[in-house]
Design goal:
By secondary structure, this protein is an alpha+beta fold. It contains ten helices and 16 strands. The chain has a seven-stranded antiparallel β-sheet, with helices on one face. The chain has a four-stranded antiparallel β-sheet with strand order 8-13-14-15. Keywords: Metal-binding, Zinc, Zinc-finger.
Length: about 450
């Protein structure tokens, strides 16, 4: 009977330990998360597994998918793992190998300075009395919590720099193409003003090219810095992953130095550059456009929660910036208004104030666009300049197709020049007398109405 009971206890103990084991690393669970299928993994093991396989929200064991990727820590399992670890630690502390040779006493005190286990006599000796001490069990709990926090912080930094690296790469890939296109529309503006060979025009185009090349080199340098930083972060993360699976005593003896290095490696994170061309003035530009000046009247302003112009752009940036993030940008109300006039021919110029809002858009489009839906991403009927608030900065975009504009944010007023006969629209920074963007001739061939909207004042 005693043998049978001992066997039953052994079976129960093995089954209990199996439930507390990560199915990826086969060690005790560390910050366990449980998927909808019921399988549990270390949070860090699951993240690394998803990254390697490129299959987020899929169980590494049974392959069942989930709508969720941001799982919460299973604190019931975490507490059970903690109890199991404490039992193992107590068993080790009471073993013969943990007896102090000189004093024949169990070593239950941890010296943080020397990272050694001591008995009470050793801890009060002249060698250790000035050091910081605590019980081994306290130290194990505290250090595992520090390890967990450091691993979480490291992983978040790795993901952040990876997102920034992808973002920087896209900007770098398109930067010179943008510069050359902007150079073309600037040259065309000077030709319209009959100043193609004027000294100001030549210098302007030369400065554009020089500024573009200078920024391109800075972008490439920053990408190299990000690669180096990402490698050091990953190396540190792998070191901590290796330590987290070790028994408490080994963890205590090894972790102190690694925690300090982990904190140091997370300092001085390279941030992505926000390149932009300076707004050079073009002499005579506004004077020429004022020849076609018209007064624009708008319908009464309306608030329409279905117009998600700015969230459309933020969603686009959000999707491109993260491989695994769910798309939930929210919805913001907009104050939108259509112009009373419908333009079917001729050249027309008007100016719109934009200095009281971060999220704004001005331009022209088909009125039917707004009646169909409020999205810009797939629209081919609107030709707008948008200023979109993102985090602590802003980005300028034009629509049809959605294109980032790397130029200074206009101050005060934006001028809109509409050439219906040629099917083109231009935007100018009135205060700086500079060109923002010009749609090429033939962009549209239908009547259009002025449009303006503001999301946040």
């Amino acid at each position: 009977m005693d043998m049978l009971l001992r066997k039953m206890d052994s079976d129960i103990s093995q089954a209990f330990q199996k439930e507390l084991t990560c199915l990826i690393c086969l060690n005790y669970l560390m910050d366990p998360v449980t998927m909808v299928c019921g399988h549990s993994f270390c949070w860090s093991c699951l993240c690394v597994s998803w990254e390697k396989t490129g299959s987020p929200a899929q169980c590494p064991l049974c392959r069942q998918t989930s709508q969720q990727t941001n799982f919460r820590i299973n604190f019931i399992l975490k507490n059970l793992v903690s109890m199991a670890r404490k039992a193992s630690l107590r068993q080790f502390l009471s073993s013969r190998e943990n007896i102090c040779g000189p004093h024949k006493e169990t070593k239950r005190i941890f010296c943080e300075d020397d990272r050694r286990l001591l008995c009470s006599h050793c801890s009060s000796s002249q060698e250790h009395e000035a050091h910081k001490h605590c019980s081994v069990e306290e130290a194990a709990e505290e250090y595992r919590e520090k390890l967990s926090n450091q691993m979480t912080s490291l992983w978040e930094k790795i993901q952040e720099i990876q997102r920034n690296f992808y973002k920087e790469g896209r900007i770098s890939d398109h930067w010179m193409y943008y510069v050359y296109r902007y150079e073309d529309i600037t040259r065309a503006a000077y030709q319209t003003l009959r100043q193609a060979f004027h000294e100001d025009g030549k210098q302007h185009l030369k400065s554009l090219k020089e500024e573009g090349l200078k920024m391109f080199k800075q972008l490439e340098k920053r990408r190299a810095e990000m690669i180096a930083k990402m490698m050091s972060l990953r190396a540190m993360y792998e070191e901590l992953m290796d330590v987290c699976h070790k028994p408490d005593v080994e963890l205590l003896q090894e972790l102190g130095d690694k925690l300090r290095r982990s904190e140091q490696v997370q300092l001085h994170m390279p941030q992505p550059l926000q390149p932009e061309l300076p707004a050079w003035p073009i002499t005579g530009l506004i004077d020429r456009l004022n020849r076609y000046r018209v007064e624009i009247f708008f319908t009464n302003e309306i608030t329409n929660h279905n117009i998600t112009l700015f969230d459309d752009v933020r969603s686009l940036r959000f999707m491109r910036g993260s491989l695994y993030a769910a798309l939930d940008p929210g919805t913001s109300n907009c104050f939108a208004a259509w112009g009373v006039q419908v333009f079917t021919s001729g050249k027309h110029y008007w100016e719109m104030p934009v200095d009281r809002s971060w999220d704004w858009a001005v331009g022209v489009g088909k009125e039917s666009w707004l009646r169909k839906n409020g999205t810009l991403i797939e629209s081919h009927d609107t030709f707008l300049l948008l200023c979109v608030k993102e985090n602590n900065g802003y980005t300028l975009w034009t629509t049809a197709p959605m294109t980032r504009q790397y130029i200074e944010k206009p101050l005060g007023r934006v001028g809109v020049f509409l050439d219906v006969d040629n099917g083109s629209v231009s935007f100018v920074d009135v205060a700086r007398c500079s060109l923002i963007w010009t749609y090429p001739n033939g962009t549209f061939s239908f009547p259009v109405r002025p449009f303006t909207t503001s999301g946040h004042t």
